[in-house]
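User: My notes are a mess, but here's the protein and flavin mononucleotide's SMILES. Can you give me a structure?
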Amino acid sequence: MSTYESYAEYYHDLTKYSPEGIASNQHRLDFDKQPSVFKEYPSQKKIDISYLLLLDRNPFSDVGIKPQKDFTNEEKYLAKLSTLLYFSYGITAIVPHAEKPFYMRSSPSAGGLYPSEIYVISEDYPGLEDGIYNFQVVNQSLAQIKKGKFKSGLLKATFDNPNINEAKLTLVLTGVFYRSSWRYQDRAYRRICLDTGHILGNIDVVSSACGFKAVLAGGFNDKSINEILELDEEEEQSLVVLPLIDKNNTVKDFPKALPSKLDKVNIKTPEGNRLIELHNRSNIEKFVNIPNIKIQSVEEKLSFCTKAQFDENKISFNWNKNLYTTLLKRRSTRAFSGESISKEELAALLDFGYHPELFRNETLDPNPDYFDASLIETFIAVNDVDGLEEGCYFYSKDGRYLRQIRFKNFREEIHYLCLGQELGYKASAVIFHTADLSKAVFKYGERAYRYLHLDAGHLGQRINLAAANLNIGVSGIGGFFDDQVNEMLGIPEHEAVVYITTLGVPAKNS
Ligand SMILES: Cc1cc2nc3c(=O)[nH]c(=O)nc-3n(C[C@H](O)[C@H](O)[C@H](O)COP(=O)(O)O)c2cc1C
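Assistant: No problem, the inputs look usable. Here's the predicted complex:
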């Protein structure tokens, strides 16, 4: 019998990286079994939405771009959807390769495996026949899966979420498990949710620029949504439902996240089955209210630590002008120079991540949806930031200040903790997104694991975009020695490290 209170905690423990575990892991990548990163619907009708993209050089066609003034009214509506999909998950770079080119997207992905798929369900949306579509990233088109009206099914599956009723378009983001588990085995579930969270970060900024409000509907009957999309549940399942309502309409009150069951069970699952087991256990069958509990921030326990306040942000992102160019140029930095960034720059990135309300006068949504961002805590290791002593800090989201918990330079340790990745050594600052897993599962059941990783990826993407905008280097890190991070940096033991974001000055030619 296991002593775990939830499957999520068991999964988390058994998918931790440790020096011994990595040394003894026999897994080798089998390139003959490498899955495609694209889903194909060979016999379905395809609707080309590529020509609606207003890019200086449209990568999907050699022909000149039709000026928007020539668009019909219906095309104008479809152009908004095409823009949203392209800048959220579309192809923004092509790397030539001997066998076939490698397509890079507007959203980052662990190992470039792109496990997420986006589906569009339309009803009464001008320019798009009612039905269900898969976003075909490879040529910026929509593959029509089914024609017809699906709102009543969606409403039932989302427990009558009133925002579904309001939306003429609903997006569903799914995870194709093997695309990521081919490389990362059971630990892939963490990265699938983080990757999908990054896409949510793009959707949050682009939808607003396109006139939509993306409303998270995290609590839904998984089986029903999977059935509507005709998914093979062994391979692919829904992660997020996202009605898009008109930006000027009021969002109807409905929980962004609902709990799933939490069974104290006799836990023992063979390796290789834990990813799907966790996902299946996180499924919701019926509506259950969120228990009325307040999770205390770890901050209270750190109130004795020295405080370093951030000044008011004076750095302008100029999103009104720079949003699309930032999304087009965003890339994960492959090498840092080791030079410093400034305290003001760090503060600006954190502000964009954690305080969207400060960007009210920009094009963006000042109040983007999270499942429950209060569950995520933030620790920052400062290697070289002008204006800040080196060490490890807790970041108070509410107070916009730091509390220094350790006083030393952690370059060597972070290099080791990030599995020897040079990015960790040369970064100026490293952000650790953490969560108290046992409290999170107490509130949201097994599904808490999904919400935490989606929210951490979403926060990570906002920091990515802010860094790309200011030409600061940035990369996510999904591989790290879990327990040793807490031990070495002084992060409280009960805070599970969910994700890492590295920041620094890009090395020349990186
Ligand atoms: C969840 C996640 C984890 C990642 N982990 C690492 C990592 O451990 N090391 C690394 O060098 N890059 C990491 N990356 C960056 C990816 O390698 C990168 O996104 C991918 O190669 C695509 O390139 P692009 O981001 O420039 O489009 C990660 C990205 C994500 C979203």
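The chain is about 30% helix and 20% strand.
User: Great, I'll file this with my notes.
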